[in-house]
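Lay summary. Proteins are chains of building blocks that fold into shapes, and those shapes determine what they do. In this project we predict the shape from the chain. Here is one chain we studied, written as its sequence of building blocks.
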Amino acid sequence: MNKLLMIVVTSLLLAGCAPTATQTENAKLRQAYSTCIIKAEGSPDKVASCQTILDVLKQEQEHKQFAEQETVRVVDYQRCLTARKTGDGQAYAADCGKIWQEIRSNNSPKPAN
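And here is the predicted shape, written in a compact code that computers can read:
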């Protein structure tokens, strides 16, 4: 009886540690966003299409802070590109490049430890 009880308790504890379908789906959404950003290569239209993934990530508590910070970066990048087109392109080119590098580095694959 004790062995059976111990097996049941151990099973329940291990099941609690296993990632749920929602966690797996959220991780896939985060990966999809990172892939979208990497493939966008700075193109304003492609970057804007990545925004829909961020909107979904904002709804998940686990990724809400990341999604909100990333939204600010993307909006800053889009504003920079608009200013670059309408104003002094050379003056904004470096700034836009810095913002884009920040977005890319935040979404690059992390090296395995």
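What the prediction tells us: The mean pLDDT is 77.
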